[in-house]
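thread: overnight batch results

M.L. [08:02]
morning all. the overnight job finished for the chain we discussed friday. pasting input first so we're all looking at the same thing
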Amino acid sequence: MKFDIKNSFKKLKKVEILLTAFALVAAFGFYTVFAAENDNASPEVLESDELLKGEFFTADYTTEDENFKINNFALKTSADLPSPVLIQEFPVSIEVDGKKITTMTRGATVADILYSQGIELNDGDVVNLPLEKEVSENDHISVARLITTEVKEISEIKSPIVYKESSLLKNGTSKTLNYGSKGSLQSVYEVKTVNGKVVEKNLIEEDILVKPTDTVILVGKTSAPISDLDLGYSLDSNGVPTSYKYVLTNQVATGYSSGPKARGASGMRLFYGYVATNPNKIPYGTHMYITSPDNSFVYGYAIAADTGTGLMQDIIDVDLFYETYAESCLNGRRMVNIYILN
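M.L. [08:03]
and the structure it wrote out:
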C-alpha cells in the first residue's frame, strides 16, 4: 500500500484543530465550576445583554481549497448548565414610520430592540408588544405613531325662527313675515389619530363665515303692540293710557315702510313706533299712543317723525311705519284713536 504523506498530514492537522477547540471549551467549563466551588457559590447566570462573544471554528475541508468556514456563536452559562451554551442569532422584524426593518438578535426586550435601531417613542405612540417582553424568533414589532393635525370643517347654520306676536292678525292665525337665509360656520379641531383611527378630537376655535338671517313668523294676538317703544306711561286694564292731554278718535290710519336707515321729514331715523303726521296738527316729536277703538289692534307708543302728501291733504290722519312691507300691507286702512301724551 502506498503511504500518502500529504493527505495524512492534512488529517492530522484537522484533528489537532478540533482537539484544541474542545480543550478550550472543557477548560472554560472546568474553570467556571472550580471558581464557583472555591467561592461556595453557584456559577453566575448571565443575562442576554451579558453574552460573551467567542469564536468556535469548524473545519470543512474540501479538495478544492484548504479554507475553513467560521461560524459565530455566543457563550452563555446558567445554573442548570454550568458549561457554556451556544446561542445563535435569530431575526426580529420591525414596522415603523412606513418602513419594514429586520434585525438579528441573540435575545433582548422589545424596548432594547427599538433602542438599538434608534427608534424613539413619543407620548401616545402604540406598540403591539409590551416593551418589557423578551423577543422570540420571528417576532414582529409594530409601532403606530400618534399623529396630531388641525382640521377645518365647514358646517351649515340654520336660519333661526323668530315668532313675533302681532295684533295685525286674528288670534290663532300666523303668517311668515320673511324667510331668512342659512349661514356657514368654520370649526377648527385638533385631531389625534393612531393608524388612521381618530382617538381624540378637540375644538380649538369657531368662526362664522356667513351670518344667518332670521325667519320671522307673525302670530296673531289681540292687543299685542306693534311698536317697540316704551315712553314710560302707564296703561289701565283696558289698554288705555291713564294720563294724556287729549284723544283724537276715529282717525284714519294707513301703513307704510321704507328701506333700512331711512329718515323721516323731521330728520329722525324711522323704526317701529315712528309715524307720519300732519305737523300742523301733530308736531314732530309729539308722544302718542295709538290703538283701535275696541283695543283689538294696538300700534302702541309712537313719536311723530315724518309726513306725507296724503297727510297734508287730510286724506289720512296718521301713517304708521313698519320695518317690513308685508306688515304695512297687513295694516291696510284702519280706524284708530290717537292719545296725545305731551
